[in-house]
Amino acid sequence: MAAVELRGVTKAWGETRAVDNISFRVEPGHLVALLGPSGCGKSTTLRLIAGLEEASDGVIRIADRDVTHAPPAGRGIAMVFQNYALFPHLTVAENIIFGLRVRALDKAERDARLKEAATILGLGKLLDRKPSQLSGGQQQRVALGRAIVARAPVCLMDEPLSNLDAQLRVEMRREIRDLQRRLGITMVYVTHDQVEAMTMADQVILMREGKIEQDGSPADLYERPETIFVARFVGAPPMNVTPLAGLAGAEAAWPAPPDGLPRERAALGVRAEHLDIVEGGLPADIVAVEYLGGETLVEASLGSHRVIARRPGKIAARQGERIGLHVPEGAAHWFDMSNGRRLSGPA
Amino acid sequence: MTAYQRATVHGWLLLLPAMSCLALFTHWPAVASIIDSFYSTPRPRRPSRFIGLDNYEAMIADPIFWRALVNNFWFAVGTIPLSIGLAILMAIWVNDRIKGQSLVRMAYFTPTILPMIAVANIWLFFFTPQYGLIEQVVQLFGGNATNWLGSGDTALFAVIVVAVWKEAGFFMIFYLAALQGISPSLGEAAAIEGASRWYYFRRVLFPLLMPTTLFVLINAMINAFRMVDHIVVMTKGGPDNATILLLYYIYQVGFSFWDTAYAATLTCVLLALLAIIAFVQYGWLERRIHYR
C-alpha cells in the first residue's frame, strides 16, 4: 500500500494555470475522487500524478518517494483511461499482459497473473477476442485487468465509467470499489459525476478552476459544504442557496443570520429535504411539482428566487398554488456572498 | 414497369458514364494489347497477320527486355522500402508537437506537388558533372569526381534517389493521416507500462499502420513500374541501357521504333506483373492485417 501526496503542485501553460498550487494527501488503501466540472483541472492533476504531464512547480510523492520528475513507468502506478486505451490489434490476453511483456516477466508468471485477473474480472471466455468484439463494459474490464496484473500499489482512473450506459455504470461502480478494497489499492479516481464520487470515495476532492474547493469525506461535503460552489455541486437537487436580501419582509419565518454578517451579504443555504412546507410559513408560489414515487420535489418561487423542497411520499400540491416554507432550527447553512465561503451552520 | 425494374434501370444509367470511360480507355486497350501481341506489326506494304507466339519468342531472346526487367526489379527494391521507411519516419516526426509543424509538413509534401519533369530538370543540375551541386560539395571535401548519370554503375542509383525523394513525402501524408487516427492515450498507456518508444512502435504503432502500409505498398509497386518521366528527362534509359525500365522500353519500342505488336507483347508482361502483385497483396497480405 502506498500513499499519494501532492504539495503545492502547479501546472501552467503560458499564462493559464490548469492546476494552481494544490496540495492533498491520499492515505494508503483509500479511494479518493477528484470531482469537478469539466475544465476544473482534475484530469490534469491525475496526469501529473501519472507523469504524463510534468509539474511546473511543487512536489509529488508516491509511497513516500519523490516522483515529481520520474517517468510514468518509474512511479509504481497503473492507469485506466477514459477510452480504455486498449490496443485494437491485440487480443484481450495480450492487452492485459502488455506491460508484463515489456518488463520481460517469464511466461509462467505472466500466465499466472493473467489467469488471476481473468478470474477476478470474469474475462475467462473472452481472452482470445479482439477489443472491437467486446461490449463497452467488457472493454472496461480488460482495462482494469491491465491495471490489476501490473500489481501497482496505486491505480489512477480517468473518468472510467463515462462511456457506459447508466445501468452498467451502477454495477461497475460497485465492482471497482470492491476490487479496490479487496486488493488494497490506493486509488485516485477522476469524475465529473458527483453521485459516483459520493458513493465510491473515502475522500472527495472537489476542484474548480485549478484550485481545491473542498477536501473531505463525502459526508463532509454534503453536510458541511465550505463554499456555495460545493453546496450547489454536491447533491441532487442542489442545495437551495438564497441571498437574504431577496427575502425582505419575512424575517419571522426564517432563521436570523449569525452575528457580524450584514443582511445584504448573507446567503442562506438549505438542503431540499430540510425545507418544510407548513401553514403560515414564508409564502411561496409553486412553479412545478415532480413526483418521483418515493418522494416529491416541489419547486417554488420566493420573489425572484427559486427553491426546491423534497418531501417524502406524494404531495397534494398543484402548480400556481401558494404554500408556506419553513427552515427548521439547525438546518440553515450561512454563506458570505462576498467570497462565497461558509460562516456557520449545522455541524 | 415495376418500381424495382425502374430502380435497376436508374442504377445502370448512373453507372454508365464512368463505366463507358473505363471500358473505352482502360479495359479495351488492355484486351486489345493482348490480341495485338499475337499479330505482326502492320507495315505499309505488309498488313498484320496472326503469328502466334512469335512475338513472345522474340521477347525472350531480347537482351534489352531482360535488362529492363532486371533494372525495374532493382528500381523497385531501391525505391519501395526506402520511401516507405522515410515516409513513416517523417510522419512520426511531424505528428509530434514540434515548432513550425505545418511548415515542415508542407516542406515534405512539396516534391509531390511539383511536376516530375520540373523535378527531373532540377536533379539533372544536381547530378551534373564538374559544376553540379553534388559534385561541388564532393569537391569541397576533396572527393573524386563522379559522372553520376553518365556512368553505368551509378546512373540507376541516381534515378532511384530522385524517385525516393519524390515519393516519400506523398506517402508521408497517408501515414500522417493514419497516425492522427490513433488515440494518443495508447502511447500514454504504453509509457505507463514502461514501453520504450521503439517497443511501442514495433508492437503497437507499426501493426496499427499496416492497412496504410498495404495501401502505400500497392501504390509504390505500381509507381515503380509506372514512373518513367524522370528517365525521359535525365537519362533516356542510358547509358548503355543502364537505367532502362520496362515502361520506358515499351514507350521506346512503341513510339520510337513503331513496332506496335512487340510493344503490345511487352505491355502484356507488364500487365501480368501488376496483376500478380495485386493478387499477392490483396489475397495474401490483407488477410494478415488487422482492420478495426
Assign the CATH architecture of chain B.
Orthogonal Bundle
Q: List the secondary-structure elements of chain B in sequence, H or E.
A: HHHHHHHHHHHH
Q: What's the alpha carbon Rg of chain B, rounded to whole Å? A: 24 Å
Overall, the morphology of chain B is: globular
Q: Largest chain-chain contact?
A: A-B, 25 and 18 residues
How large, in whole angstroms, is the Cα Rg of chain A? 24 Å
Structural class of chain A: alpha+beta
Query: What is the total domain count of chain B?
Result: 1
Secondary-structure element string of chain A: EEEHEEEHHHHEHEHEEHHEEEEEEEE
User: What is the terminal-to-terminal distance of chain B?
Assistant: 43 Å
Q: How many individual β-strands of chain B?
A: 0
Tally of alpha and pi helices of chain B: 12
N-C termini distance of chain A: 33 Å
* Helix residue percentage of chain A: 10-25%
Round the mean pLDDT of chain B to the nearest integer and report it: 85
Largest sheet of chain B: none
Low-confidence stretches of chain B: none
Task: Provide a count of the helices of chain A.
Answer: 9
* Spatial strand arrangement across the major sheet of chain A: 6-7-8-3-9-10
Give your account of this protein's structure:
The complex is a heterodimer of chains A (347) and B (292). Chain A is of the alpha+beta class. Chain A contains 9 helices and 18 strands. In chain A, the strands form 4 sheets. Chain A has a 6-stranded mixed sheet, sandwiched between helices. Chain A has a 4-stranded antiparallel sheet with strand order 2-1-4-5, covered by helices on one side. In chain A, helix 4 packs across helix 5. The longest helix of chain A has 18 residues. The two termini of chain A are 33 Å apart. The mean pLDDT of chain A is 88. Chain B is mainly α and 292 residues long. Chain B has one domain: Orthogonal Bundle (MetI-like fold). Helix content of chain B is 74%, strand content 0%. In chain B, helix 1 crosses helix 12 and helix 4 packs across helix 7. The longest helix of chain B has 34 residues. Chain B is globular, with a radius of gyration of 24 Å. The relative contact order of chain B is 0.13.
